[in-house]
Task: structure prediction
Amino acid sequence: MYSIGIDVGGTFTDFLLINDAGESTVYKNLTTPSDPSEGTFNGLNQMAEDKGISLPEFMGQVKLIVHGTTITTNATITGEGAKTGFVTTKGFRDVLGMRRGVREEMYDCKQSPPPPLVPRYLTATVEERLDCEGKVVTPLNRDDVLKAAELFKSEGVEAVAVSTLFSFFNPEHERAIRDILQEELPGIYISISSEVLPQVRAYERHSTTALNAYVGPILARYLEKLQVRLKSENFKGTLLIMQSNGGVMSPDLAMRYASNTLLSGPASGPAAGVFYSESQGVKDIITVDMGGTSFDICLIKDGKPGFTVEGSVAGNRLASPMTAIHTIGAGGGSIAWIDAGGILRVGPKSASSDPGPICYGRGGQQPAVTDSNLMLGYLDPDFFHGGNIKLDYEKTYSAFEEMGKKLGLSALETAAGIYQIVNANMAAGVREVSVRRGYDPREFAMVVAGGAGPIHAAAIATELGVSLIIVPRESSVFCAAGMLISDLKHDFVRTYNEPVRKHTSAGGRQDLDRLAGLYNEMYSEAIKTLADEGVSKDRVHVRYGADMRYLGQLNDITVHWEDRSIEDVIDGLEDIFHKRHDTLFGYSMPSSSIDFMNLRVTVIGVTDKPSFGKGSFKGTDPSYALKGKRKAYFNGEFVETPVYDGLLMGNGNKLEGPAIVEQPTTTIIVTPEFKLVCDEYDNYVLSPILKAY
Result:
């Protein structure tokens, strides 16, 4: 039986196929932007062909598919989501459009807000009002809801978001609005904030709910089509969908909470990073994933990635919990360009898969990072993508020669400059998640992923002073691997703005029962959600949390504790907050009062995971895997460099740079300053060569 991880990216769709013996096979196909499912089935057909059987026969042997997709993210970025209406409280029509009332780039006086998800004419208001404790002040006016339904019907709206004031305390009015709209507009996609994000802060709640409605019909149509086609091809296993919090969920929940798939593409990477770093006995790692379009970075301390509720998609706030991943526009397809001052720059615009870099020969006209890697000898023009894509060196050289004339550089110097610039950009991105948060990157191992990542890893590590690089054998499909080892995961939140001290022994425990009741309410909802997905209670792990802040502070921070009730931790919760605040900001105020803002429960349903098999010992000498030599650019000159077949190398092999290790879907560049060892799982481990002086 087989398990398959599928990651639909901006340039390539990645696949990892694992059998019950732990043997894995990597597949990559160009993404099909017009219909991502076509790229998915291209890969599944390729797997069936490799097994020498028909697709239905192969799919009958597949027990699990974990699928990550960028369809919702791309729909938001391109403005191609569903035509959406919005319903809110009378007198507050423009909250969604006003946003926070500030420019995200404070020094850009010409910055305009992004195009609205919901145009103003499709924003309807209804007479209703709850107070700040959830008590009804003004009853819901049913006629206003009917007028909104009439407007949406006449305008051909596909989805509606409903977010009213203080509904997180009392969802009664939102649910009534939803019921009326469903009756008047049968079949329409409806999101209500009291289900999507029941927490304080109106704009963030409005925006997240609107995003959910905006992408919901798009994702629902895609998943319904995917499930129908999988079933027609004899798939009888389990399909799970990747979400942005690093967990997976059933397709039914994915269609209901579509916004949870926004920014989910790289979210499985940290799980894979933790798994692969365990073989080296390290828990402090930085995962870097360089694909065709972006460079994704996540800092993981003590084996736990960070989380954030401050996401943004195309300028629209997304406040659902998600893995804290920093993304910059630096990938193999990142385009090099000359700015108005005559300075060479790289990215963030990408050549994508269509037309792709110049060397692909698909119509690309502007030099990209992959083109520079070809020029510098890091890529074999006849072996790229296992030989399935022949790279055009002559056309690439001409383009670099033309760009070099504008810069006063040779074609080679231009290519080397692009390589150095993109490496500097990526190193700066790593500093953003480490140095700016008080961490020294030299104290972390770097787990490298993506088809392009291993080409640049040693150069980035040299600039940062990182001394341990782990390149998984499946690095080119890193996120697909992470999906297969991810658990079902769901987040629940309730707003609760009260002083912490009121609940402690010192404060008299005035509201402890109320506090515990909210946690129990979320816990019950969480257990039911997992039960609906077929998870038994003995496979459930619960993580509790609270957003807290000092009295008078604007922003709050989240503290967590594992599998213990609030009654067991309440007396020590202030100390936990002080320590967390000190870690993040370098100070704490033990004498200050602390307030709760939001209460959180994260529930994890442990899934059966495929095992990754260990490789047999192949000795220290990798000469049997030597393919030949070619000239590659190191330290300002071309050097005759040995090239090894990565698929032949394995457990125990050692070599020193300069060297090139090729796999069909990625290339590892071992610079002269590094040595490489294959560990017992056949992964590549790079470390600096210690030289005597």
